[in-house]
């Protein structure tokens, strides 16, 4: 089956006259900007394939941030783009097939949005050395690493620390909440950072924690009803601010916050400014911004100009890949205090743990 697919791809590429640059050597540098550039002239006539995580374009959060980066690259470079979306409860084989569809369609630059594609991208990239791949949010040596894979990761714990500071300063009860979409090591980074930020301000504060689903059930990233129920339980137990690191499920958290005259904190995108959240934006005091759009745009640009780097690149506060939102003016009174903590993280005075 793979041989047949390979023949079809080779024929398609030959017909389109696409020049394939050589792949760069693998580099597992864990610092910002790690990796080794490939050799060869800048690529031309790129076809970009993007595979979304559950929720896809329109989730007002993680996937939408990736979409903004894709849209910017498409507009600036005039690229041929194809987008495919994950479905709830799908198998590893389905994820792998989605990536192979893009490769077989002649899409020689492929972005996989989310750690759930780790195993699939490792297999497909190995079979397609002429294609440049990027995966968002995962770097597992021997699984999704290789000479043609860029691993684009983020210091989510740093941004979560800052919104934890905001939650503690805004809370009147000393009781706040964290709703995680799925209980994975990645989302635990959000929880750990958030809790550390809260405790840095109020050591005796209570932080309620609830994960909506457990792997391999990833529907917790796109189930607003579950988010609504979880947040309601926290508010009933005394919380007055809840941080939702749960993708589309966060919409339910904000809905409950509004119904109970409480506060919510968004994630990934500046959720106060998302059109689909207009009815609840008045309860969103801030969001932990994760510049997935910047990472996607950077990756596509690097392939286009011939500077692609394999290996891990970390987008942290210092690199400008993580931040917090001030839209709506609800944290204007505490911004100076948050920025004090931000400066200490950037300087290294405060080191935010990324695991429990």
TrEMBL record:
Compartment(s) of residence: Cell membrane
CDD domains named among the record's database cross-references: PBP1_PrnA-like
Keywords: Cell membrane, Lipoprotein, Membrane, Signal
Secretion signal, residue range per the UniProt entry: 1-21
InterPro entries per the UniProt record, alphabetical: BMP_lipoprotein (IPR050957), Peripla_BP_I (IPR028082), PnrA-like (IPR003760)
An annotated GO cellular component: plasma membrane
Membrane topology: Lipid-anchor
Classification via SUPFAM superfamilies: Periplasmic binding protein-like I (SSF53822)
Domain called ABC transporter substrate-binding protein PnrA-like: residue spans: 54-355
Chief subcellular location: membrane
Keyword Mitochondrion: no
Protein family per UniProt: Belongs to the BMP lipoprotein family.
The protein's name: Basic membrane protein A
Organism of origin: Actinokineospora auranticolor
